[in-house]
Structures are given as C-alpha cells and as structure tokens.
C-alpha cells in the first residue's frame, strides 16, 4: 500500500506541474526581443532618441532595439534590429497606435553603426511589408529604465510581438 501511495504521489508531482512550468519558462525566455513566426529574436540593447529636447514642440521619438551594441560592434551577420518612431514631446507611459516609421530585421549586419542587409520582416517603405496595425505600450519609463511591449500586424495578417524591460541608452 505504501509503495502504491508513493508512486501515485510521485506521478502526480511530475505530471501536475509540467505544462505550467514550461509555459513560465517559455515566457521568461521570450523577454527583451521579438517573436515572429513562432521564432524568438533576442534584442537586449535599447536606445531612445528624442529629436527635440530643446522645447515642448512635438518631434519624432525613436526606440531602437538590437542584440548587439550598434555603436561599438561591427558584425557581418546575425544582427536582430527593431526601429520605430512616433510623435511626442517626451517619452512617457501610455499606448501609441500611430506609428508610421518602422523597420524590423533579423540576420542583418552592422558596420559603422549602420544596419544593413538581413531579412526584412516589416518596413514602412516596402510594398508587401507594411503594417495594417501598430501598437506600442510603454508601461513605465524613467531616466535610466524602460518597460514596453509592441505588436505590429502585417497586411497579410502575420503578427510581430516584442517587449523589453531594462536599462536604455539615450542618443540625444
């Protein structure tokens, strides 16, 4: 009887937790980057550029993500890159749906801080690669850290989801 009880308890522990644990592990693995076609692309370096820090007039505010430091590294392949900008006075918490300038690549190269080549997932200037819907949610922002998520839906229905939580570099 004891052996049966021990076996049943062991079986319950092994099977009772596995699917939830896998889901949590998968969610933790898919942080600070983007997902497209069930593939995750890491992008743990974030840069923010506000084109007008002189006054309270609206200007483009850009968020740039990459898996490499774009300003210190030259790399011939395997560069993941996300760029989008939106109009604003300051970067602040909230939801942005009017994103007209965007580009997401993987397996690109970087040379002298220029991202080139690679596989384009979405680009506002290329027919067939534009978005029918864009959403950026900035959950929190300070002078050193930012937490945001984004979703781009391509004209063909493909979805690109991404997120980041951590420190960033100001480019202005």
Automatic annotation (TrEMBL):
It comes from the Bacteria. This is Lipoprotein.
